[in-house]
Amino acid sequence: MSILLENVTKRYGQLIVVNDVSLEVKDGEFFVLLGSSGSGKTTVLNIIAGLVQSDSGRILLHGREVSNLPPQKRNTGFVFQNYALFEYMTVAENIEFGLEVRKVEKKIRQRKRDELLELVGLVGLGNRLPRQLSGGQQQRVALARALALEPDVLLLDEPLGALDAKIRIELRRSLKKIQRELGVAAILVTHDQEEAFDLADRIGVMSYGRLIEVGTPQDLYQRPQTEFVASFLGTANILLGQTKGEQIQIGPHVFNLTDEAAARFSPDGRAQVVFRPEDIALAAEKDDLGCTPLGEGVVTGLGFNGPTENIRLELPAIPGARAIAPAVPFGNPNILIDASRPPEQSTAFPLTVNQKAWVGIRRLHALSHPGLHFLVATDGSLRSQSALSLGGYLARMAHARMTLLGVGKEQALLEAYLQDARKQIGSGMASVEVRTDPAPAPVSIAKSVQANPVDLVILGWRPIEGLSLAEQILQLGDHHLLLAAHPGVRIEKALVCVASGEPGKDDVLFAGRFLRHFGASATLLTVLANGPARESQTSQVERFLAGGVHTLEMFGVGAQSKLRRGNSHKEILQEIKEGQFDLVIMGTPLPEQDGRISLNGIVEEVARETENCSFLIVRSNHHKSITFFDKPEFKYKVKKEN
C-alpha cells in the first residue's frame, strides 16, 4: 500500500476541515480526491505532504509512518496549481533544484534532467525561463521538478485548473501516461468531474471534511451508494419510492432490481431510485417507449451541448413517490425530470418547450433510503428520562437508528443504567448502539457526532434550565436538536413557527421528514408585526405558507397555516395555548458574526414560558457548521481524553 491514512482529523479553530478521514491508495494507483471548494481535499493533500500537521490520526507512506516527519523526509513530489517555479532559474535549473540541494553529482543531475525533459515533452527548452513558456509548458516543468527526486508518491493540487480547456485535455493525457510509465502512486485533487473521470483509477468524494464514498468512476456514477454522491456526480434524477419484495414501486409502475440492490432497502419499505438523464426514453406515445413508463410530462427547458440535447420535463405528482432531485420549487407537488439524448433521437422525435412527451426509464439504480439517526444523551437523571422515553418512541415509529450515549457518571454505574434503559426502550428500531463517556455532555456529544454524524440529538430539558446547553450542542455539527420536556409524551400536534425565506423552507422540509412517521398534524405559523403591511409582503407570506402546507402534505403530514399579527413572542405563546401542541418546531437564528449560534431572543422567550411542549430546533442548510472547541476547558478535556 503506497498511501494509508487512518482517522485523520484537522481543525482550524472551531472549524473541522478534515473529519476522521481514512483512505488507502494502492501501489501505482492514480487516485483522485473530488469535492467542491472548502470540502477539505487540499488540506488532506497538504497533510500527506507534511505541509500541514494533522490534529489526530496517522499517515503511512509505503508502510513507513510519517505523521510527525517534516516534508523533506517524506519523499513526496508535490505539484501546485500555480506552478511555483523559480522565475529567475531556467527550466533545466528548476528541474535540477531539488537534486542540487541534496548534493547529487552534476552528471547524474544532468542525466536525470534530460530524461525528465523528454518524458514531459520539453526537449530543447531547458535554457528558457518560465516566463518564456506557456501555462501548459510551465506545468510540465513543475511536474518534472516533482519527479526529479523519484518520490514515493506524487501529490497534485488542481495542477490543470489554471489552463484553458484544450490544453487541459492534452495535459491530462500526458499526465496519465507519465504516471503509468513511472508506476508511482498519485493523488490528484480537483473539483472538475470530467478531469476526475478521465484520470482516476478510483475517486474519493469529499464534503465538509468527510470522505463520503470511494469507488471507480464507473461505480460511483452508475451505482452510487449515497444520495450525495448520486447528485454530486453528473446529473441525477432521484425519486423516493416504495419497495415490493425485490422490486421497487413508483406510483403504479414496478421495476425489477438486483439482489444486491434489494438487500440495501431500509426496513420501512422506502428506497431512493436513481436514474441518469441518458437512462430516460422519450416518445410521443406511451407504447413507443420500449421500457417501463413513468408518466407523461411537459417540456419546460431545452439545451444543447454538442453531442447531446438536454431536456427538462415536468410530470404530474405520482402517488406514493416523492421527488428528491432535481429539486422542485417550494410547495410544488409535481416532479421534474432531466433527460438527454443523441442527435439522431432528437431528429426522429423533435421537441419544443411546452410540448408533451411520454417519459420512460430504461435503467435505474436503488439506494437504500438512509432513514433517520438519533443520538439520545442521558446522565441517568430524572430529567433525562424524558429524552429516553420520547427518543425511544420516536425511533421506533421512524424505524430510526439510535445511539444511546451515557455521559458524566462513573463508568460501571453508567453502563448498568444504560442496559436497563435499553430494555425500557424495547425493540422496533433499525439499530441501537450503546456508548458511555464520563466527560460532560458537550464534550462527549462532540466526540460522538464527529465520529458518527446524526440527524437529531435528543436531550431531556426543563424550561428553568435555560438554553445554554442547547446552544453548545447546536455548535457541534449539522444536526438538529430535540429538547424533550416530559416522559411519556407522544407527538400528535406540532406547531411549526416559520418566517418566509430560504431558512424557513429548510425548517418545513425537516418538519415534514420528521412528522411523517408519527401520524402527527402540523400548523404552520407566521407572525407579522403590527402596523401597515405592504400588500406584496402579505401576499408573499401567504404564498410561502401555502407552499409549506403543500410540502408537508407531500410527506403525508396533514397541515394547515395561520398568519398572526402582533408581537412574535406573545402570538406564538397564544397559539401554543389555544392549540395544545405536543411539539413546537422553530429554526435556529442566523449565526452571530463569529459563527456562533445564539438562541437569545424569540426562541428563548418562547421556550422559557412553555411548560408542556417539547422543542425541536432545526438547523438550516444556510447555516455554516462550526464546532464548540473555543473554550479552554473544552480543548483541554478533549485532548486529555483522546
**Helix fraction by DSSP (H/I, runs of at least 4):** 25-40%
Structural class: alpha/beta
The major sheet is characterized as: 10 strands, mixed
Beta-strand share of residues:
25-35%
Gross morphology:
globular
Low-confidence stretches: 624-642
**Order of strands in the sheet with most strands:** 24-23-22-25-26-31-30-27-28-29
The mean pLDDT is 82
What is the first-to-last residue Cα distance?
A: 27 Å
Oligomerization state: single chain
Please tally the helical runs, counting DSSP H or I stretches of 4 or more residues. 19
Q: Radius of gyration, rounded?
A: 28 Å
Total number of strands? 31
Structure explained in plain terms:
The chain is of the alpha/beta class and 642 residues long. The protein contains 19 helices and 31 strands. The strands form five sheets. The protein has a ten-stranded mixed sheet, with helices on both faces. A six-stranded mixed sheet has the order 6-7-8-3-9-10, sandwiched between helices. Strands 11, 12, 13, 14, 18 and 21 form a six-stranded antiparallel sheet that branches. β4 and β5 (64-65) form a beta hairpin. α2 crosses α3, α3 crosses α4 and α15 runs parallel beside α16 (535-554). It is globular. The relative contact order is 0.08.
